[in-house]
């Protein structure tokens, strides 16, 4: 990370030149265009030049997959601004199909290649903003004529649409990569009518989630007819099929590579700018690189993680837009440092929504944090009002100070507002227990008198105070192996949903009469979602037993076990 000086060199400490300054911005779209338009609103005299190597300077890249299916029917709706409109409204010189190929920091010049004819020229700058984005990672062992595409720009979308128009209506398409873009593409290709396979090298979809939170997404996609293959590296791609590590051959008229991105940092590196440990361009809190006249924003720039200030690559449009605005403020002399990145993200997985913020349990433990974890399974709104649907929620808490490290929410409705509330709480340092005290809007069609966010806070507070003790689904096997007894305290009607092997069924109402059967043994209590088991655990603790609650109950255990099954067995739809 670059140390932050107290103010920008062009601020009040230097006299303002009478000649207009020139700011060159490499890359348009989210970060570059936000910087350009904000800077114009702050400085009418400045010359602003935007260099964009694709054919569109401003487009809605997050909407690209939805044109594949026709959900966004008009391709032009994805083109947000043109060079002509930018020139007329903002007096911005936006040059498409112009690629910045070299920077001379000493001379303060950028060498530009015009892609239509290869001609090169030099532009002098007073400030340079690098917003080149990130490049899609390439699949190895790909035949020269294999039909492989990635999706980052409108030009990419046009090529994919042309490819799809040339294959049969239901022609098989293989999507490699189970992240946000991979899931969105699989969904929209299925809507278009194609046979779709979704291949993920890792053990579960959406690496931002923990495995038990991701397994319902895989099952949902499988249920819709997508052939989901987990834990399967791609060995080779030929002209008509994809070969997996287990020997499977998936037919493919088209292959979509969605295996992640790498920051476009080569231009900066060649200019001698510092590249951070994450591979992104190192910047300070004001987005200044190691050269004080050069800034970097967007997917190419390294971020700071909000939990531990470590280097992070957080490729999100919201951050790129905000940082574009912030860098314009700094250049104009009104510098305000940007906050570290929480990584708040959400995806529509064919009608099932998944969202996350901060760290997963896996990441927190890998980084050596002692954590408390809360799983809940509330409904999206009051159950007596029609249309309530279940949510799965997970909160990851620092055990030392009750700070929220991360959260995950999966469901059909109400996911977005819950993850946004938690992200807001994290941004102001609210303790997990304090979620119980938030005053949130309530009417039966929107929520519950005890909102799912409040319920997370109540559980977190019980854990922090020691009122409740829990184990996680992945710790149950060890507990049983070391002699603990598992009591299933659900109502009899709930047993049809499934049973945990080895559990002894004793409903809560019968525990007072039968608790003596377990004197001297450690007890794990389990219900459907953890709430009834909390009542049982309190009762047994008051009666003198060593008792813990299985966090999240049967539903979390079921989803965790299913995640392991999906990772071990290639499943065809």
Would you mind describing this structure in some detail?
- It is a single chain.
- With 573 residues, the chain is of the alpha/beta class.
- 28% of the residues lie in helices and 24% in strands.
- The chain has 15 helices and 32 strands.
- It has a 5-stranded parallel sheet. A 5-stranded parallel sheet has the order 11-18-12-13-14.
- Helix 5 (180-192) links the parallel strand 12 (173-176) and strand 13 (196-200).
- The chain is globular.
- It starts with 21 loop residues before the first strand and ends in a 5-residue tail after the last helix.
- The relative contact order is 0.10.
- Mean pLDDT is 94; it is low at 4-16.
Brief descriptors of the model:
five-stranded parallel β-sheet, alpha/beta, 573 residues, 15 helices, 32 strands
In short:
With 573 residues, this protein is of the alpha/beta class. It is 28% helix and 24% strand.
Please give the share of residues in helix.
Answer: 25-40%
- Strand arrangement in the largest pleated sheet: 5-2-1-9-20
Number of separate helices: 15
Indicate the multimeric state. single chain
Mean pLDDT: 94
- Nearest-angstrom radius of gyration? 27 Å
- Poorly predicted parts: 4-16
Shape: globular
Alpha-carbon distance between the two ends:
46 Å
Largest sheet: 5 strands, parallel
Number of strands: 32
Strand fraction band?
Answer: 15-25%
